[in-house]
C-alpha cells in the first residue's frame, strides 16, 4: 500500500527538499492549493461562490515550533476573515483550522491552542460564519474535542471533524450526534497504527457508513467529506432514510479533485462545500492528498515524467 509510505515521507526533511526542488512541483501543487496568500485566494472564493459552491478555507502549515509562529497562524486567519467580510457570503465561506498550527504540540499547548483559536472563532461569528476544527493524529483528539466543547459554549455553530478509520470514532459520533453540533466525517489521512485504526479499505468504508448513519439519525448537522461515488450515493440514501432535506446536511470535497462532481451535486440542489487550502507551507497537506488516493500519485508521477 502506497498510502502509509507517502504519509511517512510527509515528515521527511529530505523528501521535502527533493520534491520542493522538482521543476514541475509548483504546477502540480497548484491543482490542490490555488494560492500562497490571501490576495491569491479571494478571487478563488469569489469564483467558487459564483458557481453555486460553498467553501471552507484552510491556511496550510502544521510544523509550529514556537508560540510566535502559532500567533502568526492566528493572525493569518484573522486577515482572511477581514478579507471575507466584504464578500458577505456568511456561512457559505467558513474556515477549517488545525490546532497544531495554533501551538497544540508545544509546552502548554492545549491552553495555547485554545487562546489562539478563540479570537478566530469570535471574528468568524462577527461576519456571520464559523470555524471547523480539523482532526489530526489520534494523540491530539482528546485535546481537540475538549477545545471544541469549550468553544461551543459561546459559539455552538463551531464544527469538528471525525475520522472513520479510528476505532473510537463511532462512540465519538454518538456523543456528537446528540449535541446538535456540526460534524464532518472523513475516512482519515494520517498514518495510524493498527492498535487504534482500521487498516483495510473495506473495513474503513464499512466504519464510514456506520458512523454516517449515526450522524444522519442524530440531531447534529452532518458534513460528508468524501470523493468516493459509492459513499456519496450511500450518504444521499441515509439522508433520505433519516428524513433529512437538502440543506440539513452537506457534501465536502477537496479543491482540485472531482470538480465536475462538485458542480453536479450543487446543480441538484445539494450544499456542496469545497475544502480550499492556501499558503506557502504546503508540503504536509500535499503529501496527505497524494496518500489518500492512488490516482493522485499517478497524476503527480505522470507530471514529473512529462514536464520535469
Protein architecture, described:
With 308 residues, the chain is α/β, with parallel strands linked by helices. Helix content is 52%, strand content 13%. The protein has an eight-stranded parallel barrel, surrounded by seven helices. Strand 1 (54-59), helix 5 and strand 2 form a beta-alpha-beta unit. The longest helix is centred in the first third of the chain and has 18 residues, at 67-84. The radius of gyration is 18 Å and the shape is globular. It starts with a helix and ends with a helix. Mean pLDDT is 88; it is low at 5-10 and 303-308.
Count of runs of 4 or more consecutive helical residues? 13
Determine the fraction of residues in helical runs and give it as a percent range: 40-55%
Succession of helices and strands: HHHHEHEHEHEHEHEHEHEHH
| Biggest β-sheet strands, sense, barrel | 8 strands, parallel, barrel
Give the oligomeric state of the chains in this entry, treating copies of one chain as homo and distinct chains as hetero: single chain
Radius of gyration: 18 Å
Spans of at least 5 consecutive residues with low confidence: 5-10, 303-308
Q: Which class best fits the helix and strand makeup? A: alpha/beta
**Sheet with most strands: strand arrangement:** 1-2-3-4-5-6-7-8
Proportion of residues in β-strands: 5-15%
Mean pLDDT: 88
Which shape, going by the Cα principal axes? globular
* Distance, first to last CA: 26 Å
Number of β-strand runs = 8
Amino acid at each position: 500500500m502506497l498510502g502509509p509510505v507517502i504519509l511517512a515521507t510527509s515528515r521527511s526533511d529530505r523528501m521535502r527538499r527533493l520534491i520542493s526542488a522538482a521543476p514541475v512541483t509548483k504546477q502540480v501543487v497548484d491543482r490542490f492549493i490555488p494560492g500562497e496568500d490571501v490576495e491569491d485566494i479571494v478571487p478563488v472564493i469569489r469564483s467558487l461562490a459564483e458557481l453555486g459552491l460553498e467553501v471552507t478555507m484552510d491556511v496550510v502549515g502544521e510544523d509550529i515550533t514556537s508560540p510566535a509562529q502559532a500567533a502568526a497562524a492566528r493572525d493569518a486567519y484573522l486577515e482572511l476573515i477581514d478579507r471575507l467580510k466584504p464578500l458577505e457570503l456568511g456561512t457559505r465561506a467558513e474556515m477549517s483550522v488545525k490546532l497544531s498550527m495554533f501551538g497544540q504540540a508545544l509546552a502548554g499547548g492545549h491552553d495555547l491552542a485554545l487562546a489562539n483559536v478563540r479570537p478566530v472563532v469570535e471574528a468568524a461569528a462577527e461576519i456571520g460564519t464559523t470555524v471547523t476544527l480539523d482532526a489530526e493524529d489520534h494523540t491530539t483528539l482528546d485535546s481537540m474535542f475538549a477545545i471544541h466543547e469549550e468553544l461551543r459554549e459561546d459559539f455552538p455553530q463551531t464544527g469538528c471533524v471525525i475520522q472513520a478509520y479510528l476505532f473510537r470514532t463511532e462512540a465519538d459520533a454518538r456523543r456528537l450526534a446528540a449535541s446538535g453540533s456540526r460534524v464532518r466525517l472523513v475516512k482519515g489521512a494520517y498514518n495510524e497504527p493498527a492498535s487504534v485504526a482500521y487498516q483495510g479499505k473495506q473495513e474503513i468504508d464499512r466504519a464510514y457508513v456506520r458512523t454516517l448513519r449515526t450522524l444522519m439519525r442524530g440531531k447534529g448537522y452532518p458534513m460528508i467529506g468524501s470523493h468516493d461515488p459509492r459513499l456519496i450515493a450511500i450518504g444521499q440514501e441515509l439522508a433520505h432514510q433519516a428524513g433529512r432535506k437538502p440543506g440539513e446536511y452537506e457534501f465536502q470535497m477537496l479543491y482540485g479533485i472531482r470538480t465536475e462532481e462538485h458542480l453536479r451535486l450543487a446543480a441538484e440542489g445539494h450544499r456542496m462545500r469545497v475544502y480550499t487550502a492556501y499558503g506557502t507551507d504546503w508540503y504536509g497537506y500535499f503529501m496527505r492528498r497524494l496518500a489518500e488516493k492512488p490516482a493522485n500519485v499517478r497524476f503527480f508521477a505522470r507530471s514529473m515524467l512529462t514536464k520535469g
